[in-house]
Amino acid sequence: MEEKRFFEGLFYRNSQPIEDGPRFGMTLKRAGSMRFRWNETNPVREAFLGKLAGNTHSICAVELIHSKTVFAIEEAEEVDGCQGDGIITQNKSLIPVVTVADCMPIFLYEPESGVFGMLHSGWKGTGIVENAVELAEKKYGARRESFCVVMGPHIHECCYTVDEERAKYFRVNFTPDCVSPVSPDSSKWSLSLLKANLAVLRDSGINEDNIVSYRECTACNPMFGSFRRETSSLPPGTDIQEMQRHFTVQAAWVKWP
């Protein structure tokens, strides 16, 4: 039997699964690297996403830049050549896709307007979900209290350490409890992207019964690709281009059946 190369799930509303809505999904490490750049070709990615889309759907993607930029689109061609970190749409024939490798994939669906989408949220992009919700309200008349949000597998505080400057940034801009000292005499801090994003969702007015949070840490669990884990054995000062050949980028998407 072929090993599973991805997982899929349902959105939840009022703590109940939405059976008649879109599904979210994400590749696993064994699927291979889903790295995406507009000026590159990736046969592994193209084969996987081509099968996912079939003859009924179209893939839409952006080249990630670790930003809070979100595109609202009606057709896949609208983001051709674009750089950013999120896509939302009402078009059920589209499959918004981003890539992740320790950063948090955020899957979105608002049942009343039919808006759905996909976000990439690293430390620089924390808060992108608020931008997406505001854009959906303005363009599609979505209601923020009806948004259903899934925060997928990502690096957790057990493996994510940052310096004092970044810890201060998160304490001030999100919530103090998203960072904690590694030890009493350490200058390093553990950062929880989950707690930071939960604070954003709470402040954005998202119903907590509509939120699902994955507890798997991509750096701990070898079934996932991880920038930190897979590059940890490389010599200090390794060029970023060389590092990119040593970790497995995953694709994350939202798709209507």
Descriptive overview:
By secondary structure, the protein is of the alpha+beta class. The chain has helices at 43-53, 128-140, 164-173, 193-204, 227-231, 240-243; strands spanning 6-10, 12-13, 16-17, 23-27, 58-61, 70-73, 86-89, 94-100, 104-110, 115-121, 148-151, 161-162, 179-181, 189-191, 211-213, 250-255. A six-stranded mixed beta sheet has the order 6-7-10-9-11-15, with helices on one face. Strands 1-4-16-8-5 form a five-stranded mixed beta sheet, with helices on one face. The longest helix is centred in the middle third of the chain and has 13 residues, at 128-140.
Task: Write a brief caption for the model.
The protein is of the alpha+beta class and 257 residues long. It is 21% helix and 26% strand. A six-stranded mixed β-sheet has the order 6-7-10-9-11-15, with helices on one face.
Which features characterize this protein?
six-stranded mixed beta sheet, 16 strands, 257 residues, single chain, alpha+beta, 6 helices, five-stranded mixed beta sheet
Secondary-structure element string: EEEEHEEEEEEHEEHEEHEHHE
The shape, in one word, is globular
Q: What is the number of helical segments per DSSP (H or I, 4+ residues)? A: 6
Average per-residue pLDDT, rounded, comes to 94
Distance between the termini: 24 Å
Low-confidence stretches: none
- Gyration radius (Cα, Å) is 18 Å
Which class of secondary structure composition applies to the elements?
alpha+beta
**Largest β sheet strand count, sense and barrel closure:** 6 strands, mixed
Helix content percent band: 10-25%
Tell me the strand percentage band.
25-35%
What spatial order of strands do you see in the largest sheet?
A: 6-7-10-9-11-15
